[in-house]
């Protein structure tokens, strides 16, 4: 005996909600509440939700209980987008975060930075480079306040900056450079020195930095190792070890450098934000494509394998119908990672495939395809077997990704389940492929 269920309830004992419904409640006159899925953001455009919490099945870059919002770092939710939303292209230095807003993906810029992606300085401003806090050594002085002796021979120091370079010798082995440190978001710095060591052995030196207004006890001293180099080279103090960086607050500071046998060009103060720039890690949001411009960084997606389920390959069909007339099949393999697929094009196309189902059960039809067409197409699918015809549709999204695409047969707004009593064979008919160039391989996936 079957129980008489409420409108949106099913099962022998009326213990579960029908598809497209959830939250079985005895106080509900219809038994269950309707799912509130936003189809543009759900996988395969299905309106189904989970029975327990009502959450919908969202595309990769879509969030929210109803799949109606883009995840942080993404924008422009579209039905035709296989992943749901596009990745924000915010400049990692000019934007305050990776989040963008609006239909065009406008980023939130830092102060005095402009542009949709925050890639341009405001008028009368410029983007500083790593060496913008740069101090010429030849502009320094000796301990007694005299000007330094400096050279300007391009053979001794190729491409020196400004007027020349300081000659660190036994006569001049101690120089003082005044550092005018402006307001900064941090106070930790490393020192970079550009130098030439024409000798054959490393030269040891020291740098001491102290405030012009402070006491000697506030001085910070580090060792410098100048490796042999006849070409201009850089040395960072401290290096990549565990030594603490220099702590320098805004104001006037003095850097004292002691060394012999090297030529010094300039000194750079490098803020911590530059050498420990975790915020500058490049966010990767775009999926890897098999066509189009080269991609330096992309997300390589992979689908879960479904070949352990009964499947049929489109390339095994004998022909397809174009405007009702049989036409020979053309096959393509887009990349070595893609399977061999049938290339279909035309306004009215039908492809007939045969599939053997080994056992009784509920199944979902899954279609694997790839297409460069920059729009969404809807393909009609008829699943025929003796005594029954199941009609549904499959969304064909623009998909030139290396992973290809997979979508399920939906009718209407829910996953189509093949009746359990069909056990011997099925005939899959793909039709109404209008103005599209999809390539198909099909799978029948056991649903329960």
From TrEMBL:
Keywords: Disulfide bond, Glycoprotein, Laminin EGF-like domain, Repeat, Secreted, Signal. One of its GO terms (cellular component) is extracellular region. GO terms for biological process: animal organ morphogenesis; axon guidance; tissue development. Its main location: secreted. Disulfide bonds join 58-67. Residues 35-87 form the Laminin EGF-like domain. InterPro entries: EGF, Laminin/Netrin_ECM, LE_dom. It is found in: Secreted. One of its GO terms (molecular function) is extracellular matrix structural constituent. SMART domains: EGF_Lam. The keyword Transmembrane helix does not apply. PANTHER family: LAMININ SUBUNIT ALPHA 3, NETRIN/LAMININ-RELATED. This is LAMA3 isoform 13. It comes from Pongo abelii (Sumatran orangutan).
């Amino acid at each position: 005996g079957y129980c008489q269920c409420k409108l949106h309830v099913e099962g022998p004992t009326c213990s579960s909600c029908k598809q497209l419904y959830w939250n079985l409640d005895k106080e509900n006159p219809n038994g269950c509440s309707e799912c509130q899925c936003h189809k543009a953001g759900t996988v395969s455009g299905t309106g189904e939700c989970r029975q327990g919490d009502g959450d919908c099945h969202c595309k990769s870059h879509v969030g929210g209980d109803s799949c109606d919002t883009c995840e942080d770092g993404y924008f422009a939710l579209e039905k035709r987008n296989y992943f749901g939303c596009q990745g924000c292209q915010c400049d990692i230095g000019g934007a305050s975060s990776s989040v963008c807003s609006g239909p065009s993906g406008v980023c939130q810029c830092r102060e005095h930075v402009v542009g949709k992606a925050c890639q341009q300085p405001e008028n009368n401003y410029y983007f500083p480079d790593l060496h913008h806090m740069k101090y010429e050594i030849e502009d320094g002085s000796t301990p007694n306040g005299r000007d330094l002796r400096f050279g300007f021979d391009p053979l001794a120091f190729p491409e020196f900056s400004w007027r020349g370079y300081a000659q660190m010798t036994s006569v001049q082995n101690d120089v003082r450079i005044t550092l005018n440190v402006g307001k900064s978001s941090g106070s930790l710095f490393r020192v970079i020195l550009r130098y030439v060591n024409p000798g054959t052995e490393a030269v040891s030196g020291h740098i001491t930095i102290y405030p012009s207004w402070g006491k000697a006890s506030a001085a910070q001293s580090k060792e410098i190792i100048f490796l042999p180099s006849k070409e201009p080279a850089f040395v960072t103090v401290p290096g990549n070890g565990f030594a603490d960086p220099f702590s320098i607050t805004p104001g006037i500071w003095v850097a004292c450098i002691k060394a012999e046998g090297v030529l010094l060009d300039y000194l750079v103060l490098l803020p911590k934000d530059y050498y420990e720039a975790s915020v500058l890690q490049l966010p990767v949001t775009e999926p890897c494509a098999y066509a189009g411009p080269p991609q330096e960084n992309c997300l390589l997606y992979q689908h879960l394998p479904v070949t352990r389920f009964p499947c049929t390959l489109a390339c095994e069909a004998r022909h397809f119908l174009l405007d009702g007339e049989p036409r020979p099949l053309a096959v393509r393999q887009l990349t070595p990672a893609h399977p061999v697929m049938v290339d279909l094009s035309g306004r009215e196309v039908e492809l007939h495939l045969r599939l053997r189902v080994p056992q009784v059960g509920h199944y979902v039809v899954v279609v694997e395809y790839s297409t460069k067409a920059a729009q969404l197409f809807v393909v009609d699918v008829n699943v025929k077997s003796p005594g029954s015809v199941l009609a549904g549709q499959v969304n064909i999204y623009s998909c030139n990704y290396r992973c290809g695409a997979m979508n399920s047969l939906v009718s209407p707004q829910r996953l189509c389940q093949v009746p359990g009593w069909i056990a011997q064979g099925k005939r899959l008919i793909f039709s109404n492929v209008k103005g599209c160039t999809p390539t198909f391989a099909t799978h029948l996936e056991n649903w329960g």
